[in-house]
Amino acid sequence: MIEILKASMEHSKEDGYLGHVEFKVEGHEHPYEITLQSTKGKNDWSYALHFLRESGKEEDIEAVEELLEEDEWFDLLVNAAREAVGK
Predict the structure, then answer these.
(1) 3-class DSSP assignment, residue 87
(2) Which of the residue ranges 2-6, 16-20, 41-45 would you say has the lowest mean pLDDT?
(3) CA–CA distances in Å: residue 58 to residues 52, 55, 70, 73
(4) Per-residue DSSP letters for 27-85?
(5) What are the distances in angstroms from CA 23 to CA 7, 51, 60, 68?
(6) What is the mean pLDDT of residues 40-64?
(7) Cα angle 64, 44, 36; round to 5
(8) Is the pLDDT of residue 21 over 90?
(9) pTM of the complete model
(10) Kind and range of the H or E element at 18?
């Protein structure tokens, strides 16, 4: 359902963890990017979700927001960014 296109994450003592994941969702016209931030890199992730290159339908982004409420899909994106630390 979600295909990871690109993932990255940086860490600093001052800002904690800052990650970016570009991904596609099956059946959606436009890809997305999520920006993830956590001070400790544990379960305290905040995020911002937006379309990657061009705007799409509001219903689509709302559907992805609902999808990310399920830990399985949110964790998939967080883990993709975590695996990219230091690359």
Answers:
(1) coil
(2) 41-45
(3) 14, 9, 20, 20
(4) T-SS-EEEEEEESSSSS--EEEEEESSS---HHHHHHHHHHHTSHHHHHHHHHHHHHTB
(5) 9, 10, 13, 13
(6) 92
(7) 50
(8) yes
(9) 0.91
(10) strand 16-25
